[in-house]
Design brief:
37% of the residues lie in helices and 27% in strands. It is of the alpha+beta class and 431 residues long. An eight-stranded mixed beta sheet has the order 1-2-6-3-7-19-8-18, with helices on both faces. Helix 8 crosses helix 10. The chain is elongated and about 80 Å long.
Length: 431
């Protein structure tokens, strides 16, 4: 009886092992094309809501695969559906396509030389966050899945999203607009997957965690009003520059001295300080803008109350006046949370794809992602793919959004294998 049971267990395990091997062979088969796509996208980056060439390349490849393709979603987004040969769940997989207003400083034969206009300024354009890799990887996954469609249960929705980095001023965009336009209406996915290449891991590694992974982000604006006067006679006016500087300085104590960050981290950063037109004139107004990153709604609300109290108190002490948009309407990303059950279910898939020792637990990260809108709508899993060359000190790696951001292209193979394995296992009911 014992021998029979062992034989039956071995027989049951065999299809799983064969499926894993087939999946990895399929990922390897598309590897060269994924590399070509990534380099092409890198050399031809486009800003948010302007990804017209990228969308054309994506849609053309998806049509060649015989998929149902819809373009023009949320301006330049592309949606495609692959129907498997058997009944089963609906899985969504998302990649973002937009680049950043960053001038590339990496010496590559396919480096970006593109220039464009952003917020009225002439800027360089670069895939400094790795969305070129995301788009290429998802095209590779779509190609591999299309080759095995007759054996796949269920369907896959491929989401190529514009404007993850934010829309141009005065425009809507990104995941929020895709959902607003009904991308999940009618046929709601059972789960959504996404990945991000990241500089905190070596190429070959995948990082994941249950629960909150990326912070929720908010934007705020503070206008400080004084009274204009000659720079030689500051006592004749009210100096909004000095007042604004005091607000910036005092606001730093909100996180460091007023919030209990032993429970969850928080960040308050000022990124813009604008005021004045001439060196010897004290202006009448200064504008400050910044970002708040939190993982908890109550902490977020408390932080903004304290920011308002601080700004108004400092201004009153100087005789100035403030107006706050804190938070600014529509300038928010929710916390990106990995569904616990889905993460537990698919972590073995990631380990199967890249090796158990190469799947590492990562701490919560203060960057934000609008993948959170998709993961708020249906159970989501989002994971990191390392890009730093093995042997390089992670502390010396240029971060995402840097003009020196560099990706070891081994990450393309790792990301393709990991995402493909997770997708196949999910469709077949989990590993």
């Amino acid at each position: 009886m014992r021998r029979l049971c062992l034989a039956l267990l071995a027989a049951l395990a065999l299809p799983s092992l064969c499926a894993a091997a087939d999946t990895q062979q399929a990922a390897a088969a598309v590897g060269d094309q994924v590399l070509k796509w990534r380099r092409d996208f890198h050399q031809h980056p486009e800003l948010g809501n302007r990804e017209t060439r990228t969308a054309e390349v994506v849609a053309d490849q998806l049509r060649k695969l015989g998929l149902e393709v819809k373009t023009g979603v949320a301006h330049t987004g592309v949606i495609a559906r692959l129907k498997g040969g058997k009944p089963g769940p609906l899985l969504a997989i998302r990649a973002d396509m937009d680049a950043l207003p960053v001038t590339e400083e990496v010496d590559l034969p396919f480096a970006s030389k593109v220039r464009s206009t952003y917020a009225g300024q002439d800027v360089g354009v670069m895939h400094a966050c790795g969305h070129d890799a995301h788009t290429a990887i998802l095209l590779g996954v779509a190609t591999a899945l299309a080759g095995m469609r007759k054996d796949l249960p269920g369907e896959v929705m491929f989401i190529f999203q514009p404007a993850e980095e934010g829309s141009p001023p005065g425009e809507e965009g990104g995941a929020k607009l895709m959902l607003k336009e009904g991308v999940f209406d009618g046929t709601r996915p059972d789960a959504v997957l996404g990945l991000h290449v990241f500089y905190t891991l070596h190429a070959g590694q995948v990082g994941v965690r249950e629960g909150p992974l990326l912070a929720g982000s908010d934007r705020f604006k503070i206008r400080v009003f004084g009274a204009q006067t000659h720079g030689a006679q500051p006592w004749r006016g009210i100096d909004p520059i000095v007042t604004a500087a005091a607000i910036v300085s005092q606001a730093q104590t909100i996180v460091s001295r007023q919030l209990d960050i032993s429970k969850l981290p928080a960040v308050l950063t000022f990124g813009m300080f604008q005021g004045g037109v001439r060196y010897n004139i004290i202006p009448d107004k200064v504008e400050l803008e910044g970002t708040v990153r939190t993982f908890d709604k109550d902490m977020r609300d408390d932080l903004f109350k304290r920011l308002q109290r601080t700004a108004e108190g400092v201004a009153a002490a100087q005789g100035a006046r403030v107006e706050l948009e804190a938070p600014m309407p529509g300038a928010q990303n929710p916390v990106t949370r990995n569904d616990a059950a889905l993460t537990r279910r698919l972590r073995p898939s990631l380990e199967k794809a890249v090796g158990k020792d190469n799947v590492v637990d990562v701490p919560p990260n203060m960057v934000a992602e609008d993948f959170s809108y998709f993961a708020d709508a249906v159970p989501g899993l989002y994971f990191f793919v390392g890009v730093v060359s093995p042997g390089q000190d992670l502390a010396t790696a240029a971060p995402n959004h840097s003009p020196k951001f560099f990706m070891d292209e081994k990450a393309l193979d790792v990301g393709t294998r990991a995402m493909l394995q997770a997708a196949v296992d999910f469709l077949h009911g989990g590993p």
